[in-house]
Design brief:
By secondary structure, this protein is α+β, with helices and mostly antiparallel strands. 24% of the residues lie in helices and 30% in strands. It has a domain of 118 residues: 2-Layer Sandwich (STM4215-like). The protein contains 3 helices and 4 strands. The chain is flat and about 80 Å long.
Length: 175
């Protein structure tokens, strides 16, 4: 069966984009001026990504092995389990965020602290950065899922994010 002539096929009208849906930025091009919160007080997640990526990070941790008894009665078997326990400290210094057009004051730091505490999207941005920090520490032993406990506080114009990390670790050969 031959293909139809594309010039004769009736076309459906395409949907119109009501606002800008794509932004093109070349490599090495400085980021445009941005606002962390919109006029209607919504968090701009893309700007938050840039802030979290530029944040100073200090990560530490190690793998601990523990013995676990499995079974009951005379069939008790000892199995060793490995778990990664660590901490990542992120420091978001708003005075260093030159791309921000928001008024950088303690109120902005407080609003960011609240967003990092309550907004699931913001928590995911922090979780992604912490995952990359753990991957830097563990390399191929990095587990797929991490259990994270976050504590966020302000110190002047800096927002400090303390993340405690716990994750089971399996050997590369077992994967």
């Amino acid at each position: 069966m031959p293909r139809p002539d594309p010039r004769r096929v009736p076309r459906q009208p395409q949907a119109r984009a009501g606002r800008l849906v794509a932004v093109i930025r070349g490599r090495g091009q400085p980021p445009a001026e941005r606002r962390l919160f919109t006029d209607d007080d919504h968090l701009d997640v893309d700007t938050l990504h840039l802030l979290v990526e530029d944040a100073e990070a200090v990560s530490e941790g190690r793998i601990y092995a523990s013995a676990k008894s499995v079974g009951s009665g005379s069939g008790v078997e000892e199995q060793s389990e490995a778990v990664f326990l660590g901490t990542t400290l992120l420091t978001i210094d708003l005075t260093m965020a030159t791309m921000l057009t928001d008024k950088v004051d303690p109120n902005l730091a407080r609003r960011l602290r609240i967003a990092l505490t309550e907004d699931v999207r913001a928590q995911r941005v922090v979780g992604d950065r912490v995952y990359r920090e753990v991957a830097r520490l563990l390399g191929p032993l990095t587990p797929a899922a991490l259990e994270l406990n976050r504590f966020v506080r302000c110190q002047g114009l800096r927002v400090l994010v303390d993340v405690d990390i716990e994750a089971p670790v399996t050997s590369v050969a077992a994967r």
